[in-house]
Give the backbone structure.
Amino acid sequence: MTRLTEDMIDEIPSTAAERSEGLRRAIGMDLRALAFRAIDEDPDDFDLSCYSTASIPITAGLGVIGGFSQSVSAILGNMGFRSFVTSKTDIDGIYEALEKGADILFTADDVRYIAYNRRTGIYSDNAFATAAGYAEALDGAAGGLGGKEVLVIGAGLVGTEAVRILTSKGAVVSVTDIIPGKAEKLASEYGASAISSVEDSISSHGYILNASPGLIPGRLIVKGAVISSPGVPFSFDAEGIAKARAIIHDPLDIGTAVMAAECVVSRKKVGRT
Ligand code: 2YJ
């Protein structure tokens, strides 16, 4: 999983509200609505101000990313949660969050980014939540995916979950990956098709979920393409941006919002078999 860097997230705290509004213009749902729709829930059924959320910085591994916990907290605050960043890090930070009465804890090391609802025991993993959020965003931007041909780029954790969700939405799903055999294996599990040439697959699809960190040259993008792209860093050049009808992308917002939504419903609906 690609590690986020400070420059990828430095604008989140000051732009969380306008980014959510941008999403509403692009897909017809703001961040909060998207998060609940992604797990088949009605956003109006939940009063998020009832929940206190804590973001806990973690120093393990490569250490704290400046602004990471603050960005998570800003995203949650903008959704309507009460939110704070603990002043302590690591286990001491978890203790602080519990002592201060946080209901939902958000914390990440270099491998995993999770949320945990201490009241219900429900927890959420960022990879699964990201796939659910971006699949729902693609569905919104496309005006429904039933019967439409969708390409998933990348057969890793997010791509795998995306193939499962998009197939269940009635899309005709193809998957591609630079590692030979990976896409074939995933496709066979979910009744999708595998395309061995990444380049050919991109230039033949108007709906794309990009779960890979690689750069996608604009010459391959179909004019008017609708692209949902959780992969970091951002994969598109100026030509690709100009040709696409919509590119939905952020470094942290959608995944975090779906994690939070998962943690306030009474049972899991995303990505667990
Ligand atoms: O607490 C901190 O500031 C750091 N320990 C945060 C580490 C953030 N983790 C990552 O960037 C991982 N690669 C997972 C990111 C998932 C986003 N899709």
Remarks:
- The first helix runs from residue 6 to 9.
- The radius of gyration is 18 Å.
